[in-house]
Specification:
about 110 residues; alpha+beta; 2 helices; about 40% strand
């Protein structure tokens, strides 16, 4: 990946940089389902309360994959930064969830 992590922000500007060109929206999506084994294991974890690590790991992996797809699409547009980055998620069907990472692909230059 060519876009450095410090060039991706949830804000609408990057301190020390000027936006030269806006290339439009870039997005990355990941759709995951829970496995039967994972669902049973997480069910046992809910009995005792606290962090449900199986779901935490699934969510983190899904977000990371969507984030990487976002960067790939922004780079394909020619961007060297992404502003206004956000995540969104929806349940597609029972046990199947999509995570969308999106933002505005831009070309910036140092001020």
């Amino acid at each position: 990946m060519n876009i450095r992590k410090n060039m991706i922000t949830t804000t609408l500007e990057l301190p020390g940089y000027s936006i030269v060109t806006s290339l439009g929206i870039a997005r990355g999506i990941s759709v995951r389902s829970r496995s039967l084994v994972g669902t049973i294991g997480a069910g046992f974890q809910t009995i005792f309360g606290g962090n449900i690590s199986l779901y935490t790991e699934l969510c983190e992996n899904t977000r990371q994959e969507a984030f990487e797809h976002l960067i790939t699409q922004a780079e394909a547009l020619g961007a060297n930064a992404i502003i206004g980055m956000r995540y969104d998620s929806n349940e597609v069907t029972d046990g199947v969830t999509e995570v969308l990472a999106y933002g505005t692909a831009v070309i910036v230059e140092k001020k």
